[in-house]
Amino acid sequence: MAEKEKLYFTNEHEWIEVISEDYVRIGISDYAVEQLGDVVFVELPALNDTMKKEEGFATVESVKSSSDIYGPVEGTITKINDSLEDEPEKLNDSPFSAGWIVEVQVSGMLDTKEWMDAKAYDEFVSE
Amino acid sequence: MIESSHLPGSLYYFILKSRGVVMTEQHRYLPATEADRTEMLKTIGVESINDLFSDIPVTTRATHEKKIDLAEPLSELELIKHMHSLSELNKTASSSPYFLGAGTYDHFVPSVVNHVTLKSEFMTAYTPYQPEASQGELQALFEFQTMICELTGMDVSNSSLYDGFTSLGEACNLATAVTKKQTILLSDALHPQAKEVVDTYAFGMEYKIETIGLKQEITDLDQLKSVLNEQTAAVVVQYPNFFGSVEDLKEIKEILTASNALLIVVANPLALAKLEAPGNIGADIVVGDMQPLGLPMSYGGPHCGYFTVKSKYMRKVPSRIVGETVDIEGKRGFVMTLQTREQHIRREKATSNMSSNQALNALASSVFMSALGKVGVQEMAQQNIDKTHYLASKLKEAGFELFNHSAFFNEFVVKLSKPVSQVNNLLFKKGFIGGYDVSALINVEYAMLLCATEKRTKDEMDQFVKALVEVVK
Amino acid sequence: MTTSNTKMIFEQSKSGRRAYSLPENDVETFDLTAQLPKHLSRKNAAELPEVSELQLMRHYTALANKNFGIETGFYPLGSCTMKYNPKVNEDIARMDGFMNIHPLQDPATVQGALKLMYDLQEDLKQVTGMDDISLQPAAGAQGEWAGLLIFKAYHEKNGEGSQRKTILVPDSAHGTNPASAAVAGYNVREIKSNENGTVGVEALKSALGPDTAGLMLTNPNTLGLFEVDIVEIAEIVHEAGGLLYYDGANANAILGKSTPGEMGFDVVHLNLHKSFSTPHGGGGPGSGPIGVKKYLSPFLPVPRIEKQEEEYVLNTDYADTIGRVKGYFGNFGVNVRAYAYIRSMGAEGLQQVSEDAVLNANYLKARLSKYYDTPYKQHCKHEFVLSGLRQKRKGVRTLDIAKRLLDYGFYAPTVYFPLIVEECIMIEPTETEAKETLDEFADAMIKIAEEVEEQPELLHEAPLTKSVRRLDEVVAARKPKVIYQK
Fold first, then answer.
1. ipTM over 0.90
2. What's the distance, CA B207 to chain centroid?
3. Which pTM value belongs to this model?
4. CATH code of the region B111-368
5. Would C240 be classed as within a structural domain?
6. Is the CB of residue A61 less than 8 Å away from at least one CB of chain C?
7. Residues in domain Glycine cleavage system P-protein N-terminal (chain B) (predicted)?
8. Cβ atoms < 10 Å from Cβ of B120
């Protein structure tokens, strides 16, 4: 289970956990989930789909909104949290653990410097 | 004696009125009195009503010189008289037996249907955006969805679309979206207007339409096999088809299994009382029009499209869906659900642009289905079969040749020896509304599509056959 | 309103009951099953309900009692024009000569229907200031789509089809505008409204380009504000090679006062179920005729209803038409009602309609502006927006205010739309409401503003007087249950 402090964040509110040199796990932040309200549906990509940077790869829906989740890296989707299809509430209950969305094998070098750490992210959203 | 120059609409009248010589008559639909208006203007803080329109650019304003020109208003009595005189110019199904079907049918509608739809709580409500004040409408539409799924054998129904043809257009849009393929194959045994409407949808979404020809009066499955390829998003057939015959959906589905193309079926809901539900023999999407079940012909509209899918495609369905839920006290209630599909939330990414649907007609159809019920729709469908086959056998006895080789429901094609329009004119003079000219569609010199619903009596059909014999002599 | 649970009609069903009678079959029965392949004969009957006629009427009466229509009370739903639907028009639409005619019967046998449609087209030309009308679109959104396909056909005809692929839409637009553009095959570019709530000429200029197919505008817009720069907007859109689309959802504000034609629009749709009094039916059917300027006439949907000598005919002979957008001739029965309405009002009556609609809206706005935030100060047209921001700071959301209004015996205004106003409350009273009703509504809104201060929890609990309490939309969307199962 990831602790928030070990994660990186984008200003589009995705979080990234670096699992190994070229594998990352991706989800959306506690702040994003709070803004969305009760998540009612997650539209997931297919296994082996290509993730492109800053392009939508999944959609998260509340009763009256639908938001695209953008790719923070380039790569190939290697794992999908398909339990979200039946239990989208996991995103609300534990956005950093049971509510993870996909794992990706990153193509090219992983550069964590472009992202915020938890502290910087919290400052970013409180602005 | 009134001079015509003093009549309403004349300049003289206008001047009199502006001087207050002629009283402005208060319109029956408008409650504001002059005193109300004065008081309200005062509250707003303006001198005259024109101050509230001063932001309209002067050059675009309607002025006395270029005011809109409409006929003088009618009182209720005059209006009824005028409208009655227009309606009297039309030949109707209550005075002549209709043998014309072709997608719109002269069926019996019990009185209860009209009485329920006239209830102002249904008729004058808007879309149920506030569910707590709209439970009646929502429950009725939920029941509609259930009945439609019962008839079609599908998992999910929306709460109606404009008509059967536009439902099919939406189905083709859905198929190209989910398969990411760009060609729709349309059977030549579809209603010709269905093909035209789908062509328009395809012009919008920029996908390709190809057609599958006929083998006698049904879809040519060998041709289907040859045109089907990896670019095919969906195959569309009608059940029963436009010429009345029953397509073999199971066989068509078997042809499609090798590809990922969807099977879209356009089905007459009345026929589904006797025919196997398309959902049980492979359909991915079933659409059609509820007109046969409780809606007057009304010169082609408003009718009511229905739209059903297998649950896999639930989140791609166009327009409104009603779902069951509970209130904070745990009591059963209904809401519009999965709204993120729709235009008011997802805007250009919505599954469709539809906002208004045909809710009141979906209600009418629900009332009809509830009135007839499980046994009644079967009885009505059987009477359609019986009458149509009686008519067919009488025509055969009289020496006419039928074009249909496969089993048909309540329509069939008969070959004639004279142009159909000429035959229809002569039939009209004998008091009948004859069938639809399908000569060009099936490439037969003279061919007419005939229909006999439960409303046709043995006597009417005997007379019609006699008349037809005389006419083509 | 009834508060007891109404059983599903399926729960009242008992085998053997019926609410219909058909005549005895007078011909021999025919066994279709014997002719069909086995797998095409129905095995299990559709489980439709089996009830008596009185049970049926009680069921639907119970449902009606849980529903709120215009005759129940004030229905201030913004952008929906919930005006009175005249009763006589229902009688007229049910006349035998309108209800029992077949769309494919010989036009010579339905001259009355064709004349009615032809005359309605002529009237709508007057009301819109356009040169030709098609009655075919079934509703506003279909009119938009048909209109944008006309844009597309026009640009293609000029050899610019592949270049002009963008439709501009203000951020205050109805959701159908961008959605219709998408299903017409267009990309959508949103234009930010300026601080006055209207389209700014500068923002528009910077969005226009060689890719512009056209601009869609609602005027007055969804904030109830007239686009004061409309003449200049029309000029610069046309200069850029684009076309101008008029979303007629708000036409109730300008009847007889101005026309989209005069304003410079090329294509317009009207919602006959809004401005022209036909009932909404709980969501439809509507009717969304479109009008075009002369040079776009060749692209209109077919068939067209025309007059040749003294005969009314259906003409499909137009090579450049976008085709057919719906079956037959549109929602004829709805058009009959709209025609009857126009004949009841006349030109002066329609102008009075708009004047009273605008008067009512401004009056309500004036009465409420002390108690709710009014983001736009200028006079409105037929509707206006409030913002519930002041109340939100006290912990009460606009949704709570909407639900509380139900307890006061009113329907709720449109809420959270347009999206550009926070905690938006959009109110459209229409001209058919008496001053007394407006005052009662204003009093209730003011009372609610007081409740926000004194008993906010009451608003969170609302509604308390309807057939159900607040419904759980999250459960409905997470675990969709869309048909009844025993």
1. yes
2. 24
3. 0.96
4. 3.40.640.10
5. yes
6. yes
7. 27-467
8. 17
